[in-house]
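Retro notes - structure team

What went well: the batch runner handled both jobs without manual restarts.
What didn't: labels got mixed up in the shared folder, which is why I'm recording both outputs here explicitly, each with its sequence directly above its tokens.

Job 1
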Amino acid sequence: MPATPLSIRNWLTLATSFVILMVAFSFGLFSLPQFYPSLVRIFHWNRATVTAGGSIVLLLVGILSPLVGSLVDRFRPKRVLLGGMCLVALALGMLSFAATRTQYYAFCVILGAGASAVSILPNSILIGPWFSRNRGLAVGFVNAGIGLGGVAPTITAAQIARRGVPGAFLFLAACIAIPLLMTLLIVKDGARGAHSAAGRAPSAAELARMPMFWIFGMSLFFTAHAMLGIQQNLVLYLTGEGIPMQAAAHVFTIALLAAALGKLISGVLADRLSARAGMLFSISCVGLGILALLETPAQSGLIDVLAIVFGMGYGGIFNASPTIVFEYFGTHQVGRALGLFYVFFGLGTASGGVLAGYLFDLTRSYSTPFVLDLVLAAFALALILLTARATRPSPVTAGAALSARRRVAA
């Protein structure tokens, strides 16, 4: 039977998911580093202290992912996304009057919980069942919203200059109304996806016995740690090298916008070859970007070029978890399995930024943390390359998954 044409609502749902990641998720995460120099200046906190707030957010995005996945499996993605957007708006509003480290960290906890609930996990499960043939590209497209959310640093810098730190936080909180209304008016939880090759998604115990889980998981951890060590400290590094705030925000924005292209490329590679191929591309770009950053003066015009290379890898790696899970297990009731992969990702993103900030405070130089990030990216790449057999779906698994996709398309 021919595939059933996608309705206008399906395409609008895809667009809504894109906007959720561009605004609710990205503004909550990518705007925060732009506040770091102001927080250091106003409260006289050190860099490890201010970057710890971002690490708290990123840690919670990861460690809460199994819970978010379970909630998605039970209540469907729309309700989880709506709740998450409310939490993100609340947290940004509360950060506008944070005056102590305790308040700052407490509000970052709320922001992390909200960001986890509007992350790639529920959005991927929302749109994944509708796209049986180009699922990797569809995931890459909605995740490209995170890349376009790279305008957040530039917008935030302008708002800080115009309204001050409290006003900028309130402005970002108000922006969450856009994806919230779109979700209420457009999204329906009606799609049912392809079942896993075994007829069901694996339990946590079953997943833990699979070598691919640990290989992919550790590679995600090392890559996420490396790239967030750069991302969370890039503005601090550039401004410390004498680059004006607006120019530093411009470089950061270029990297995040390039992430959109990286997500699309990674998604196409996952569709045409495998999720493993998309992951190899992304890790390679992250490593090359870090190497170029170490060898390029901050004042060089080439800084924008290395930001593009790094950004493509930074963006592409966000596709890894959903494309891996969909390739192995289909799209039905896979929220918990997907959430377990995001634990590795979340632990890596949470540790990268704060460790880099701590090492700078210790050595007064970013050379040491950036070299460490390069080594970890190289290790993640080697791990995937050296375990090729264990990270490819077996013919039985691949054939069953293909049959499931064909049943959905029929």
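Job 2
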Amino acid sequence: MDTEGADMTAEADALAARLAEGIRAGQRRALARAITLVESRRDDHRDAALALLNRLMPDTGRAVRIGLSGTPGVGKSTFIESFGTWLTARGHRVAVLTVDPTSARSGGSILGDKTRMERLARDANAFIRSSPSGGTLGGVARRTREAMLLLEAAGFDVVLVETVGVGQSETAVADMVDMFVLLQAPGGGDELQGIKRGIMELADLLIVNKADGDLEAAANRAVAEYRSALALMRPKYPFWRPKVLKTSALTGKGIDRVWQAVEKYRALLKEHGELHRLRAAQAKRWMWSELQEALTERLKADRAVAESLPALERDVAEGRLLPSAGARILLERFLERLPPDRG
């Protein structure tokens, strides 16, 4: 390793050591800086982030990881604030990771969840972090998994991940949490039309929110319809059939039953050995996801690929070349430049 590389490695290790110490000491500024570090795309930041996560790995894995999704207007932020403050009042430390969609045109993001959860944001036992999706599919940010580990190392025992919303690709959060919760609002009798079967099958718990005032009767009907629909689907585990509950995030009604369902579900996962298997499978898929991303970045940065790309993209766009053929040409030119296997 050259002197410059050794200096960069030493600097990354020193930064990782300082942040790890601050996170273990409960310093919120160190935690916020660490999340910014793992979200960065700079190579030196990625080195420091990896060193930091390696240091903190023994302190992770003990939190309850819950993913929350739902259609726009269902009241996810109001529910999370009500649920989070209920938990902190009972001695839990709650972290919330929210994801705001990034504009495809400007690249900007509003990041307004702290203003929508003002009461929880002021809670000393809560931590809220909004991150842009950065164009990442799945309703989560690019480094949500790493941020979850940092929060666990900081001592938060409940981590809530709120997705952008419900859609065909808004399911990646289910692959990084212990329990996937789907929120719905009572509607005009067509509740089942507003939700896709695929995401219904992923849900471990379905909550009909806004069950108060004039909407309570509609909420009761929605609960009955969802229970009937879920009864026709094959559950993920033989020991757990997804429950349907109703809540009012506005009044707090039903919030206690949500936590009871979470505790029962997680206890059953542990009892049957599924929590360990679930997280192990998620870790393997995470590794392959990282590999795909790293290979794509390396391929795009390759000189031969960069030289070939404009002409190939033009040929694909104008219909002279199949996209699959263009991809194969780029891959072959990239592989040609790799050193031979000396095995």
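One thing worth noting from job 2: Confidence is low (pLDDT under 50) at residues 102-110.
We'll revisit the folder naming next retro.
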